[in-house]
Each structure stands twice: as C-alpha cells, then as structure tokens.
Amino acid sequence: MSNPTDISISTSEHPVSLAGAAGSIKASLSAFASDETHLCGKHRLITFTARLKETDPLLWLQNQDIYPRIYWTNREGTDITAGIGKADSIEYDHAGPNNHTFEYLQHHIESKQHDERYFGGCCFNNVQPREEDWAPFKSLYFLLPQLQITRQNDNPVLKAHLYVHDGEPLTAAAARLLDTLENMNTGKIAGEGTIPDLGTISFSPSREEWITTCNKVLDTFNAGFMGKIILARRAQLEFSTPFSPLLFLLNYPFPESSTYRYYFEPEPGRAFFSFTPERLYRRDHDRLLTEALAGTCSREALAEDTTDACRHLLNSEKDIREHRFVKDTISKELEPICTDIDMEKQVRALQLNNLVHLYTYCKARLRPECASDATVLEALHPTPAVGGVPRDKALQQIMDLEPFSRGWYAGPVGWISRHAAEFAVGIRSALANRSTIYLFSGAGLVRGSNPASEWDEVDHKIGDMLAIARQTV
Ligand SMILES: C=C(O[C@H]1C=CC=C(C(=O)O)[C@@H]1O)C(=O)O
Ligand SMILES: [Mg+2]
C-alpha cells in the first residue's frame, strides 16, 4: 500500500441535534464504506463531522459508557473536547529517561498523514517504579478518540474518526465505528450521580515527616548544592463505594476559572485528572507560547481579599525568588532552540479562585530545525515550578525524598497533532482507582522557605479538590 492520505467529510451544514448528527454521520459512514472505489486502502483516517446545536461536552461525556474517555478544556474555556473510544493511539511503556519517551511520541505523530489531535499525557519522570494504581497510564499514552464533541469558540461539532489500521479491511474498521455510534447515548442525562461519603483521609508524608524532609532540603541550600526543589504531597481519600471520577469535573464549582480541566480515563473508574493553572507550552508550527508560574499566596492565609493577596505576593521577596528560578531557567532553555524570545520583564499576579500566583508570559519562535515537540518537551520539562535547580540533582532528590511515585503528577498533559500542541503541567491533580482517590500537589522550596507554611500552601492548592470530595462546595 502506498502512503494513505486522509480526508474529512462534513455531513451537516446547519447545526442539528445530537441524534440528528449521529444519524447523518452513520449514513455517510455506510455510504463511504460501501463505495468500492474506497476499498483499495487509499485512506488511513476518514473524519466525519456534523455541526451540533448547543451541547455541553462534559454532560455528553457523563452520559457515555464507552472507554477510554477523555476531556480537555483550555484555560480560556474556548477550546473544549470530550472524547470516547480509541480510534488510534500512541502508547509506550518502558522505564527510562523521558527524552526517549518524547522522541517516541515525536516519531509517531510525525508519521501521521492528518492533523487531528491525540489527547493524553506522560510520566513526570519515567525512571521511578510506579505503584499498581498507575498501571493503566503507561510512560506515555495519547489517543485519537473514536467519537468526540469539540467546542471551539462556542461552535460544537460531533466528530467520528474512521481509522483503518495496517492490514485491516475498511469494512471491519467501519463496523467498529458504527458499533460505537450505535452505542453512543443521545438521550437525556440520567441524573448527575453523587459522590459517595468520604471515609478516611491520610497524608503521605505526614506533617511531621514533611517538616523533617523540608529541613533537610533547606540544609542543602545552605551548603550551596541546590537552589530550588519542589516537594509534593499525596493525600489518600477512601470513599464508601466506587464512583465515577468524572463527578469531580462535574462538581467543579468554578467553571469560569483560569484553570485547565484535564481528564483521562483509560478504564472505567481509573482516571487521572487535573485542575491546573499552569501551561507548559502551546506550539503552532514554529510559534511558541510558554510561561513561568510559581510563587503563591492564598486569600485564606491572609484572610483578606484578592487585591491584598496580589499586592502581598508582588512584594514577597521569597516568592519573587521562587518565581525567578523558573523564569531564568525557561529563558536559558529556550535560548539554543528559539529566536525572538520575548519574556515579559514585569512579573504579574494570576488570580485563581482562592489562590494568587506569580506569572510571567513568554513567546518565542522556534528555529526551523527545532520546531518539534520532542525538542520543546526536552527543553522545558520539568520546569523549576515542579522540578528544581539544578534539574538533574532536583529530580534525584525528589525520588529520594518523596515517599510515593509521582506517576503522571506534574507531567505534561494535553494534546498533540502534527504541527501543533498544547501541554499543561499536570499539577493539582488526582489519580482515581474506583473508591480510592489520591490527590497530588507540591510547593517550591528555596532558601528561607518555612516548612510549616509550605505544608499549608499545599493544603490550599488541594483545597478545591478536597471541597468537592467532602461535598462542601
Ligand atoms: C507544584 C505545584 O505548584 C507549582 C505551581 C505554581 C506555584 C508553585 C509554588 O508556589 O510553589 C509551584 O511551583 C503544585 O500545585 O503541585
Ligand atoms: Mg510556593
């Protein structure tokens, strides 16, 4: 077979209901698969799209019983996708340095003949053995959904991906997709479902252990070995019965907030999700957007309003130093791979619901030979907002000092296509395994950090997720 080319078929010009969209896609799909001129393997991916009347992708997803299930909202809320099923995927599961993982991803995305997005994520560091709860997540797992609702700038569409695998007859691939379309629920939502009662919560490390570990780290700063390190905590929540982790997204109380919403559920009840405010980067061909985000103040800690929290943060010498490590490292890492690096001079305050962060925006142009996601991922991940300075020493310390594996926590999560990508940093995140949910968040330690305040900072960072779990939102 020569290189198959990919095509896109639009099935409805005017917005229609979900059932109408599914019907027109089924009709186009059947017509396509029964056309003999298509049987010669000319096409690898055929994308069918139908415009939809107003549809909420998250409510649609909640109503579907087809896995994997994924969900993505960018920080601005202008780019939303909910997807089900696996048309194609890029999966890799071998321990080793992350640059191998990134190159594997690059090699596979580059070989595609189409520009559709693959959604997924990767491990923070790919060398640490992971607990069994992480098993379905792999070193790297990106997938092209079989069916998805995408809403960009308030224009929802239903998309179906007919993907013909090597050696597979077109009719078999079409039958698979048709089956998913038949099983897609187009009816009314059966009711939201509720989060069951929260039983126990335990923290790893304990507060006492955290303080001891932080003090050890502060000694390494005084000895001059290290500049910054981010230590994370894990909270283990046990519920009375298993439930759908999607309820965390459905119950998120701040739909207008400046956070990404990311959800990846490879198997029923086993999901990784994140309400992260932090962009790793956005790439469109050679144009790159990235940022430094580090340094935190909570409204609660000040018992004052957001304006005061912003003012406090912009005058906090320790937080500015904590932020500076990230800003300087990003500039240094971009230098060899970019031109036109435009890193804002002035640091700003980014307001979330209960927290304020220091934030610096950066844009740059990738050099032609560097315009690939493997190059950008290797350069930027992990920034000293989640790793430390110097990077390798910090990564080793994190593995030595944290009493759990990070898995996908703080790893790059998002989507990638041939010429574009957007990755968020998977912090303020959770791993769900039926009735157990692990929450992850961390804090940046620099010389002068106070271990007890850093413990409280992490409490505030997981505050929204804990409130959902306790049903006190
Ligand atoms: C590592 C996390 O937050 C980072 C991002 C913003 C502010 C941070 C801080 O002030 O410590 C952290 O560097 C996390 O939430 O898990
Ligand atoms: Mg901090």
Automatic annotation (TrEMBL):
Cofactor: Mg(2+)
TM spans (from-to): none
Sequence positions that bind Mg(2+): E322, E457
Pfam families: Chorismate_bind
Top EC category: isomerase
EC number from the UniProt entry: 5.4.4.2
Gene3D superfamilies assigned: Anthranilate synthase (3.60.120.10)
UniProt keyword terms in alphabetical order: Isomerase, Magnesium, Menaquinone biosynthesis, Metal-binding
Catalysis: reaction(s): chorismate = isochorismate
Active site residues according to the UniProt entry: K228 (proton acceptor), E278 (proton donor)
Top-level taxonomic group: Bacteria
Molecular function GO labels: isochorismate synthase activity
Pathway linked to the protein: Quinol/quinone metabolism; menaquinone biosynthesis; Quinol/quinone metabolism; 1,4-dihydroxy-2-naphthoate biosynthesis; 1,4-dihydroxy-2-naphthoate from chorismate: step 1/7
Positions of the Chorismate-utilising enzyme C-terminal domain: 207-461
Protein family membership: Belongs to the isochorismate synthase family.
Function: Catalyzes the conversion of chorismate to isochorismate.
Name of protein: Isochorismate synthase MenF
Source species of the chain: Prosthecochloris ethylica
